[in-house]
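Design a sequence for this backbone.
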């Protein structure tokens, strides 16, 4: 394999490692902790052990899609926008304990993800489909966040 042929592989690997690395770093710096454990949560809130494996898979998919946007074009700005919102959510929700602001961020993130899927559907169906599990998970996470706001009267 020559340098030209290895370029897509390198870009995919770097993007996956970057997204996964930043996500893991933010997750370890802003853990749920006692504060979150003490909150009332909706009945559909997943158990804590689910989040690490799910986000690992999602960050791999997000990184792969990011590499596709670098290599082949498409909705680069929307990809960056969802990533900014994604990486902002944990520090705001867990770090600053701003549940309502977290809800605004995660709903905004979901809207950007859905817009990304809609805009990429015809031109890059692979990227759009790779974002579907992300949209499903963020929908659940947004509902959990909103549940925390409502159940704990933190409006």
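Sequence:
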């Amino acid at each position: 394999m020559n340098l030209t042929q290895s370029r897509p592989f390198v870009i995919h690997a770097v993007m996956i490692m970057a997204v996964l690395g930043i996500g893991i770093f933010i997750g370890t710096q802003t853990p749920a902790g006692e504060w979150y454990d003490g909150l009332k949560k909706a009945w559909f809130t997943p158990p804590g052990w689910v989040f690490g494996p799910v986000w690992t898979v999602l960050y791999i998919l997000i990184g792969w899609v990011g590499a596709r946007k670098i290599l082949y074009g498409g909705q680069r700005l929307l990809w960056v926008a969802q990533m900014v919102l994604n990486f902002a959510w944990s520090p705001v929700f867990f770090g600053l304990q701003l549940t309502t602001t977290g809800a605004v961020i995660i709903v905004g993130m979901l809207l950007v993800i859905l817009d990304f899927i809609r805009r990429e559907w015809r031109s890059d169906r692979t990227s759009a489909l790779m974002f579907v599990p992300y949209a499903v998970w963020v929908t659940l996470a947004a509902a959990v966040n909103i549940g925390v706001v409502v159940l704990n009267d933190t409006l």
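The two ends are 57 Å apart (CA to CA).
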